[in-house]
Amino acid sequence: MSVTLILILVVVVALVVLITVNYFRMKNAKPVANSKQIKVLNNKNFKAATKRGVALVDFWAPWCAPCKIIAPVVNEIADTQNEFMVAKVNVDHNQQLAQKFKVRNIPTMLILKDGKEAGRIVGVKTKKAILKEVESVMAS
């Protein structure tokens, strides 16, 4: 066998191992909303829950790897503050809400003020960046 062929074989095996490990890690991941402070919103309770005050609403799906990455950050925000509501919406179960707010990528976090969208964060961000956006909305 040539050195090139051996190298290709090693790379392919390494990729298969990485993909397999990540698959089982994601499959066995902890629930996305495991903070007691996070409200789970749906098509029925969304309007009433967000009509007053400021809310950080995380639109997510169980199959979404970036959603699982950002979940501990959202949980920490919910557990360490009480000035605004932190909530989650499963887009697979609440497609009407995702369509209403034009959520095309997940995770997407909406910052609502008295029921109206006042800010939007798309993708994985740091706790500091998320809080900065929420504080900006609260100050306005």
Automatic annotation (TrEMBL):
Domain Thioredoxin: 26-139
Native species: Draconibacterium aestuarii
Keyword rRNA-binding: no
Coiled-coil stretches: none
Name of the protein in question: Thioredoxin
Transmembrane segments: 6-24
MF (Gene Ontology): protein-disulfide reductase activity
UniProt entry keywords in alphabetical sequence: Disulfide bond, Electron transport, Membrane, Redox-active center, Transmembrane, Transmembrane helix, Transport
GO biological process, one term: cell redox homeostasis
